[in-house]
Design goal:
235 residues; mainly alpha; 11 helices
Length: 235
């Protein structure tokens, strides 16, 4: 029990900076979305969707007068990155499909990155991190809806903080040089796609992840080994 308590405290310490940055973006979203959706729908969106990139995308499209079909299709495309996130996280989650389905609610970029730094306790890390980040996102949205006048400074701070946090998560999750090389490759591909295809910046990380993830590493001597059991399953 004491060991579990220490692990939970360590998770909370690690998630607080992420939650702070998420709250800042929640403020930005609340202030930007209220003129488009109104107070009630803005708060409901954060409570029921819990995906900053999707919510910002939908708000921008709605503000620009896009059709409902275009908004739904774009939101589905942007959220398709969760398929990749779930596939990466799945080998580290214990329990049956019902438990994993419940944890899926908390699958966002930040919580998955945090869970991958604690792979032996990925499910509990995802749960604790997800709850804290969810509360932070809702609280930030409320603040943004109520006091949108502070947004310019908050937006600049959030834009500066998030890249630093994601670099830190990548550094903690990179347990081998192969992962380091793939992370750097994904970053390079993302930057190139963002410049070459500005309209597709929301899905550029998904494309980059797929590009650098394949082909997978083949274990040396795997086909010549006399042992039939496989130790683990690296990326």
């Amino acid at each position: 029990m004491d060991a579990m308590g220490r692990d939970d405290r360590a998770t909370l310490v690690a998630v607080v900076p992420l939650a702070g940055a998420i709250a800042l973006f929640g403020v930005v979203f609340g202030a930007a979305s209220r003129p488009v959706f109104g107070t009630g729908l803005t708060l409901a969106t954060s409570a029921l969707v819990f995906s900053g990139v999707v919510q910002f995308t939908v708000a921008g499209l709605a503000f620009g007068g896009a059709s409902s079909l275009a908004i739904l299709a774009t939101a589905a495309l942007v959220n398709a990155r969760n398929l990749a996130l779930g596939a990466v996280l799945r080998p580290h989650l214990r329990g049956g499909p019902v438990r994993r389905a419940g944890l899926a609610w908390f699958v966002i970029d930040e919580t998955v990155g945090l869970a991958l730094t604690r792979r032996d306790h990925a499910a509990r890390t995802l749960l604790i991190g997800g709850v804290v980040c969810y509360v932070a996102w809702l609280a930030g949205t409320v603040v943004g809806v109520v006091g949108g006048g502070v947004v310019p400074g908050v937006a600049a701070l959030a834009a500066a903080v998030f890249p630093v946090l994601f670099v830190a998560l990548a550094a903690m999750a990179a347990t081998s040089m192969s992962l380091v090389h793939r992370s750097l490759g994904a970053a390079a591909v993302t930057v190139m796609l963002a410049f070459a295809w500005p309209a597709g910046r929301a899905i550029a990380p998904v494309i980059a992840a797929i590009v650098v993830a394949f082909p997978g590493q083949r274990r040396p001597n795997a086909s010549h080994s006399g042992h039939s059991d496989v130790q683990g399953g690296g990326p």
